[in-house]
């Protein structure tokens, strides 16, 4: 096949993220074949780095990081207050006016370390930029946008893409859907981790109720589309089906906090009908069947 740099550049722009150094020459002999070859690569779209933490491990690390930072800030504030009080008592002056500006200036002049949440997100982003053509990576971006979570709302966003999107990017939509909706990042982002069946044991004992965010997003954005075949009753019933899908608390579980767990006592009991189909109460499998 004749070398065609123009078609190679077009393929890299249209199906990837644009040319990189040497990429046009690398595929110029057969741009179409290069795209197809990328799809045939083993584990394409996966990130092989083993040093990246799981989403739940990142969640636990950031929890400890924030707790330690808060403690350090309080410790420093108490130290300053104590020093100012001593200065006021010994000199009879104003502790605010008498505070040493050099100490404050030295602290502000120190270079600020990159916060751990940003470090984790950067590491995930760096690990994903090595694709030669970028066709599969474009698909990853598409599905990550379709099943989006807020990186500011959850530190699990990087791990979420690696764990729920990438393994299924060339597979079945239903497999990706199950992986996404049951991922801790999605359960936190759309508040299903706090959703409790009103008639469940936990709902009755704690006087807590239903959160419909996840159920509504699945129907409205992730699958069927807005103003289609479902009604509000379907959203409510689907939300009941998904009760009990939550995560282990990070504050009290330093080893497994942030991981998915199904809590039966928070699950709304009974069979529920969603869009004219009845789903029997089989615990966590009731939601997976939907």
Can you walk through the features of this model?
With 290 residues, this protein is mainly α. The chain has two domains: 55-103; 117-128 and 140-289, no CATH class. It is 52% helix and 4% strand. The chain is built from 14 helices and four strands. It has helices spanning 5-15, 23-27, 31-40, 55-91, 101-109, 116-127, 135-146, 157-165, 173-181, 184-189, 201-206, 213-222, 232-241, 284-289; strands at residues 245-247, 260-262, 272-274, 277-279. It has a two-stranded antiparallel ribbon with strand order 1-2. It has a two-stranded antiparallel ribbon with strand order 3-4. A hairpin with a 2-residue loop joins strand 3 and strand 4. Helix 6 (116-127) packs parallel to helix 8 and helix 12 (213-222) packs across helix 13 (232-241). It is flat, with a radius of gyration of 26 Å. The model is unreliable at 101-107 (pLDDT under 50).
Kindly list the characteristics that best describe this protein.
two-stranded antiparallel ribbon; single chain; mainly alpha; flat; 290 residues
What is the average of the pLDDT values? 88
Helix content: 40-55%
Estimated share of beta-strand residues: under 5%
What Rg is obtained from the alpha carbons, in whole angstroms? 26 Å
Taken from the alpha-carbon principal axes, the silhouette is: flat
Number of strands: 4
Biggest β-sheet description: 2 strands, antiparallel
**Alpha-carbon distance between the termini?**
49 Å
Order of helices and strands: HHHHHHHHHHHHHEEEEH
Structural class: mainly alpha
Low-pLDDT stretches: 101-107
Give the count of helical stretches. 14
Oligomer: single chain
- The tally of structural domains comes to 2
The strand line-up of the biggest sheet is 1-2
């Amino acid at each position: 096949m004749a070398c065609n740099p123009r078609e190679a550049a077009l393929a890299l722009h249209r199906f990837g993220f644009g040319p990189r150094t040497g990429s046009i020459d690398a595929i110029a002999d057969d741009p179409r074949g290069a795209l197809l070859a990328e799809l045939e690569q083993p584990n394409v779209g996966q990130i092989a780095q083993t040093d990246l933490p799981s989403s739940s491990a990142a969640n636990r690390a950031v929890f400890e990081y924030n707790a330690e930072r808060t403690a350090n800030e309080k410790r420093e504030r108490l130290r300053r207050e104590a020093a100012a009080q001593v200065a006021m008592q010994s000199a009879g002056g104003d502790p605010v006016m008498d505070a040493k500006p050099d100490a404050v200036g030295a602290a502000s002049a120190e270079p600020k370390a990159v916060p751990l949440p940003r470090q984790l997100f950067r590491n995930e982003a760096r690990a994903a930029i090595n694709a030669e053509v970028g066709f599969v990576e474009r698909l990853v971006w598409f599905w990550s946008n379709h099943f989006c979570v807020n990186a500011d709302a959850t530190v699990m966003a990087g791990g979420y893409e690696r764990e729920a999107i990438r393994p299924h990017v060339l597979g079945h939509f239903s497999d990706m859907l199950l992986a996404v909706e049951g991922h801790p990042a999605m359960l936190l982002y759309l508040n299903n981790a706090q959703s409790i069946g009103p008639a469940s044991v936990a709902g009755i004992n704690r006087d807590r109720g239903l959160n419909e965010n996840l159920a509504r997003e699945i129907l409205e954005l992730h699958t069927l589309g807005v103003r289609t075949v479902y009604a509000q009753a379907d959203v409510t019933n689907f939300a009941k089906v998904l009760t009990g899908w939550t995560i282990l608390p990070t504050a009290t579980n330093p080893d497994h906090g942030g991981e998915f767990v199904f809590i039966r006592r928070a699950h709304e009991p009974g069979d529920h009908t969603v869009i004219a189909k009845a789903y029997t109460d089989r615990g966590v499998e009731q939601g997976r069947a939907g």
